[in-house]
Structure formats: structure tokens, C-alpha cells
Design a protein that fits this description.
This protein is mainly α. The chain folds into three domains: about 220 residues, Cytochrome C Oxidase, Chain A (Up-down Bundle), CATH 1.20.210; about 260 residues, Up-down Bundle (Cytochrome C Oxidase, Chain A); about 55 residues, no CATH class. It is built from 20 helices and two strands. Strands 1-2 form a two-stranded antiparallel sheet. A hairpin with a 5-residue loop joins strand 1 and strand 2. Helix 4 packs antiparallel against helix 6, helix 6 runs antiparallel to helix 7 and helix 6 runs antiparallel to helix 18. The longest helix is centred in the N-terminal third of the chain and has 36 residues. The chain is globular.
Length: about 650
């Protein structure tokens, strides 16, 4: 049976093709491609990716402000910046924001923008669902943070929110309710996005783009979406159970009624440890694209890179209980999960060795993107080595709930995930926006970040080994913890300086580019390898003039380079001869819609209704129904004659992208 990849619908406005009036209550389709309305109504995967990135960057500064408050509180003994209760709320919201509202959506920004380009598609499989996933994430994040102003304070249970400690007896305010409902909303967003991206990669690849011709970044994102698809239902169940306990008097986590006190921990960490790889694998994919380009070599051991990523995703399901060694799960379970934790270090080590082998003997260009990529390799190695020590159960039992653990996961998630994401920003910025970020400012940003990062989290290893608990609000001068806490606090301000410099770089680079007459960086400014560099910069709205036919891994590189008799790369075609021209003739795009936003906007009202007054559920439900109704009855933009004058082109494209 032939599977046909049909072109998306044309971007048109006006009445339905049958000439009938639009259904009552259906918003008129937006008629503009520019201005704020084009962003509010967009279903373009590139704009949605940019909106994900901007929103995640905003929440990064929110989380950074919360981290600064934590460090100010701990900068000296008997700190008084935060009360004990407010301290619990701040460190909870810092962790929740960084994990669910910064790193995950920042990785989603790259996935949304790049996956269709890297597989040779014009958009994701379901453009409007893609828009819905963004708006659900945005409204879920805003809902979660409104607990500060209308909820009586933030959640105070840690980002893991262990039950029964998070029940109404120990957390009587509404903060935990915001936690459960906010994460349920953002979880729906991630689930929708995961299904969309999986279908896109599996069904919309260009002709000749076999699975093992896909870029490593695409592979890592595919593994991540699979992890999301199967892990999110577990945390969803846990959040539903906790919500029913808190709001409706259920007893799922009520130990007095016979509940298992470890039930939440098992449910949370069955999700939570795959979540670690959901956070880090996108950055692994990013540096696997950056390092070959700036080493002037193909990635070393491509199959090993792919299969190690798959192995990490598969083995990540078998190590969750190493977070529970101190909970009394028994020696047999501890031994089994200790071994699994040791084994999962193997595929991670394979990736590190492959990156180093790629750089070995290469003609390395230390651009800002390359510096951040090398920084990830170095810092994640440190975090990985400290993580291996946790596989030794007696050592882990001593380290659990100390600042040694805080140091470990920040070296993994900040030194790993975030440095990789910044590498990707500097690398793909000209592709997305049509101009470079300033390299001098970028390198200053890198050094401030790497120095501040090590000043902040390096001393935490020492503090942890000295016995400093990870969730204490203060300490005594006689504890001997003051010096390293002050060093860590100073490091936070160095990181903050780096981030402010990054913001300045964005603004000043744009102004310089505009003042210089908006010079174009060219489609392929880095002499790159994958398909997104075969189209103009910034990326045209339609992506590809014609869907490319792929004949090899790193297909774009092979269009530019061949080999001489000694196996050395030689230029066989000028870049301008192999780059598409950006001609949109005959290309059809999906029409924009406001309804994903309308549908998503209803869920926070339902959340407020469940917390405060069930009457508030009514406007939320009406918004959801309006969004569903309008979405279902919004008129089609596809005429019966294959889009009129472009019927031949559309038919030709369908024939070209048919797969037997």
C-alpha cells in the first residue's frame, strides 16, 4: 500500500469553498502574516519553536531569581532573607520551573524548529495540535506561577513533591494543588507534542531519508519523544491520585487508611528517571551536530551514537529506585538497581568517547557554539562520574539528601543540558533569524557561565561531604559551612552576569545587523552537513522549494564535497549551487487558527475552579468547548480542484513523496 505525504493546506482566507456562511461562534480566520496576530494564530512549526524558546528563556530568568534568593539565604549562617516556609516554596518552584518550564520546553523549541527541516518536511504532521501544545505549556506555566499571588504561596514539597508529605495535613495551603494541576496541563502539552513529533519523523521523511540517514539530533529527539509518550502517563496517574486526595478526600496516599507510603516515590521516579534523559538527550543531539561541523569531520561512530542513545532511553526505565536507596526497599532491590545504574553509564560513556574521537585530529574552530559544546562534554563528564558513585548503595546512603546530590544533578542538568542548549542557540541563530550573535560577546558569555557554574556547584560537593543537608533553610557558624556557601553565592552572580550579557548580545546583534542594512548570513554560514542548511536563512515560511531526495547520511555535505584518491574531502560544488532559492511557487501551507489558544485558555479556569470554587469551572469548560467546536467546524481552505492553478505542482509533489 502506498503511503502518501500530502502537502499541507494553503494559507488563504475568506469564506468556505462551498460558499456557505461560517458556523455561528467560529472566529474569522486571521488574514495577516505579520504582526502579533500572526504569532497568536500561527501553526508554523518555526514560529512555534521560537515561541517555545522565548517563553522558556523567560522562565529561566524566573528560576534564576529564585535560585539567587536561595543562595542569598545560605550565604551566611542564620540567614534571614527567607523564612523557613517561604524557603521551602522558593526551592520547590526553582526546581519545578527549571525542569518543567525551562529545560523541557527549550528542548521542545529546538525539536519544533528543526525536526521537520532535518527530515525534509514542510511542517509537522499536525500543525494545529503543535500550536495547542505550545499554548497548553504557556498557560500551564502561568497557572503554576500564579500560586504566588492568588494561591497563598507556592508549593512547598520539593519538585518531587513526595506524598504523603504533600497531603493536606502537612501542606494545607493551595500551593500543592497548583503543582498538581499545573503539571497536568503541561503534561498534556508534552504528550501532544511527543505524538506529533513521532509521527512527523516516522511518516514525513523526505524520499531516501532512511532512519539511519537521519541526523543524530533527530534520533535523540525521537528517543526523547518516545520516553515522553510512555513516562508521562505514569506521572499523570500520580498527579490525579494526589489531586483526588487533596480536593475530594480520597485515600490513595493516606497511610492511616492503609496506603503504601512509598507508592508516590515509585510512581514519581518511574517517570522521573526517564525524565533525566528527556532533559539531557536533546543537548546530546545538539552537540552531536555542532562538534562535527566545527571539527570538519563526520561524527565518529554514527551507529554507536544512535544505538547508545536508544540504549540510554531503554535502560533509563530500569534505574528509578536508585533514588530510593534510603527508603528501605530491601537489599535485593538495592543490589539490582545498583547494577542497572552502573550499566547505564556505559552508553553515556560511549557518547563522550565518540565526541572526543570526532574532535581528535580535526581542524577545530572554537566558535561560541563549539565552546559550549566542549563545555558540555567536560561538565557532564564530571556530573556523570559523581553519578556513578551513587550506584554504590552504601555511599549513596551517606550522600542522599546532602549537597553532594545537588552538585551532581546540577553538573548533569546545568553543565549538560543547559550548556548544550546554548550551543544550539549560537549555532542555529542565523538559520532562524538571519543574522549572527556577536562572537566576542558570545565567548565572554561562555566563560562567565562556565566560571560561575563551577564556582556555584563545585563547592557543593565539599559541602555535601561535610554533611550539609540539601533542604535546610539555615545553618550555624560552628558548622564550618560558611566559606564554601559564600563562594557558591558569588558564583550565582557570575552566572547572572553571563545571562545579562547574553540578553545584551541578542539586542546589540540585532541592532548592528539592522544598522548594517540587514546583511544575509547565507544559507550555510558554518559549512554544515544536514538538510536545514540547504535552504535560505532565515528559513522560508514554506521550508523547501521542492522536497529533497536524500542519498546519504550528511546528504547536504556530500552535495558540496567529494573525496580525492587519498580519501581527503575536496569541494565539488559551490554552496550557492546546492542551496534552494526560496521560491514558494506552488507550495501550500496550513491555515492559521486561533482555536488552539482558545481551547488551552480554558484549562487554567478549570484548575482555579477545582481549587477555589466549582463555578469557575463553567467559563473554563465553555472556553474548551468553544475551542473544540470552532476547531472542528472551521472551514477548510482546500478547494476541490487541488488549489486551482497549482494543481499540477501539488499532484506532482504527492507522486514524488509517495512511498511504496
Amino acid at each position: 500500500m502506498a503511503i502518501v505525504e500530502r502537502e499541507p493546506l494553503a494559507l488563504t482566507t475568506g469564506e468556505p469553498s462551498n460558499g456557505s456562511l461560517e458556523p455561528l461562534g467560529v472566529l474569522a480566520r486571521p488574514s495577516t502574516k505579520t504582526g502579533w496576530r500572526s504569532w497568536v494564530s500561527t501553526v508554523d512549526h518555526k514560529k512555534i519553536g521560537i515561541m517555545y524558546g522565548v517563553t522558556a528563556l523567560f522562565f529561566f530568568f524566573v528560576a534564576g531569581f529564585e535560585a539567587t534568593l536561595i543562595r542569598l539565604q545560605l550565604a551566611q549562617p542564620n540567614g534571614t532573607v527567607l523564612s523557613a516556609d517561604l524557603y521551602n516554596q522558593v526551592f520547590t518552584m526553582h526546581g519545578v520551573t527549571m525542569v518543567f518550564l525551562v529545560i523541557m520546553p527549550m528542548a521542545a523549541a529546538f525539536a519544533n524548529y528543526l525536526l521537520p527541516l532535518q527530515v525534509g518536511a514542510r511542517d509537522v504532521a499536525f500543525p494545529r495540535l503543535n500550536a495547542l501544545s505550545f499554548w497548553l505549556f504557556l498557560f500551564g506555566g502561568v497557572f503554576l506561577n500564579t500560586s504566588w499571588v492568588i494561591g497563598g504561596g507556592g508549593p512547598d514539597c520539593g519538585w518531587f513533591c513526595y506524598a504523603p508529605n504533600s497531603g493536606v495535613v502537612f501542606s494545607p495551603t493551595a500551593g500543592v494543588d497548583y503543582y498538581t494541576l499545573g503539571l497536568l496541563i503541561t503534561g498534556v502539552a508534552s504528550s501532544i507534542g511527543a505524538i506529533n513529533l513521532i509521527v512527523t519523523v516516522l511518516n514525513l521523511r523526505a524520499p531516501g531519508m532512511s532512519l539511519f540517514r537521519m541526523p543524530v539530533f533527530t534520533w535523540m529527539q525521537l528517543v526523547v519523544q518516545m520516553l515522553l509518550l510512555f513516562s508521562l502517563p505514569v506521572i499523570t496517574v500520580a498527579l490525579f491520585l494526589l489531586t483526588f486526595d487533596r480536593l475530594f478526600g480520597a485515600n490513595f496516599f493516606n497511610v492511616a487508611q492503609g496506603a503504601d507510603p512509598l507508592l508516590w516515590q515509585h510512581l514519581f521516579w518511574i517517570f522521573g528517571h526517564p525524565e533525566v534523559y528527556i532533559l539531557i538527550l536533546p543537548s546530546f543531539g545538539i552537540v552531536s551536530e555542532v562538534i562535527p561541523v566545527f571539527s570538519r569531520k563526520p561524527i565518529y561512530g554514527y551507529p554507536f551514537m544512535v544505538f547508545s542513545g536508544i540504549a540510554i532511553g531503554f535502560m533509563g526505565w530500569g534505574v528509578w529506585a536508585h533514588h530510593m536507596f534510603a527508603s528501605g526497599i530491601g537489599p535485593i532491590s538495592v543490589a539490582a538497581f545498583s547494577l542497572a545504574t552502573m550499566f547505564i553509564a556505559v552508553p553515556t560513556g560511549v557518547k563522550i568517547l565518540n565526541w572526543m574521537a570526532t574532535m581528535w585530529g580535526g581542524r577545530i574552530r572554537f566558535t561560541t557554539a563549539m565552546l559550549f559544546a566542549v563545555g558540555l562534554v567536560a561538565m557532564f563528564t564530571i556530573g556523570g562520574l559523581s553519578g556513578v558513585t551513587h550506584s554504590v548503595a552504601p555511599a549513596d546512603t551517606q550522600q542522599t539528601d546532602t549537597y553532594y546530590i545537588v552538585a551532581h544533578f546540577h553538573y548533569v542538568l546545568f553543565g549538560g543540558a543547559l550548556l548544550g542548549l546554548f550551543s544550539g542557540m549560537y549555532f542555529w541563530w542565523p538559520k532562524a533569524f538571519g543574522h549572527f550573535l556577536d562572537e566576542k560577546l558570545g565567548k565572554a558569555h561562555f566563560w562567565l557561565m562556565i566560571i560561575g557554574f563551577n564556582l556555584t556547584f563545585g563547592p557543593m560537593h565539599i559541602l555535601g561531604l561535610q554533611g550539609m543537608s540539601r533542604r535546610i533553610q539555615t545553618y550555624q557558624a560552628t558548622d564550618g559551612l560558611t566559606f564554601w556557601n559564600r563562594v557558591a553565592t558569588f558564583g550565582v552572580f557570575v552566572i547572572a552576569a553571563g545571562m545579562l550579557l547574553f540578553l545584551y548580545n541578542i539586542g546589540s546583534s540585532y541592532r548592528s545587523w539592522k544598522a548594517a542594512g540587514r546583511p544575509n548570513p547565507g544559507a550555510d554560514p558554518w559549512d554544515s552537513r544536514s538538510l536545514e542548511w540547504s535552504i535560505p536563512s532565515p528559513t522560508p515560511e514554506h521550508n523547501f522549494d521542492t522536497i529533497p531526495t536524500v542519498r546519504a547520511a550528511d546528504d547536504f555535505w556530500h552535495r558540496k564535497y567529494g573525496e580525492d584518491e587519498h580519501g581527503r574531502a575536496v569541494r565539488i560544488a559551490a554552496t550557492e549551487d546546492v542551496v534552494q532559492k526560496g521560491d514558494a511557487t506552488g507550495v501550500h501551507l496550513p491555515s492559521p487558527s486561533y482555536y488552539p489558544l482558545v481551547l488551552a485558555a480554558g484549562l487554567p479556569f478549570i484548575g482555579y475552579g477545582l481549587i477555589f470554587n466549582l463555578l469557575l469551572v463553567i467559563p473554563g469548560a465553555l472556553l474548551v468547548l468553544w475551542g473544540v467546536y470552532g476547531w472542528a467546524y472551521e472551514p477548510s481552505t482546500e478547494p476541490d480542484d487541488h488549489h486551482g492553478d497549482h494543481g499540477t505542482a501539488a499532484a506532482a509533489h504527492e507522486e514524488e513523496t509517495s512511498v511504496g
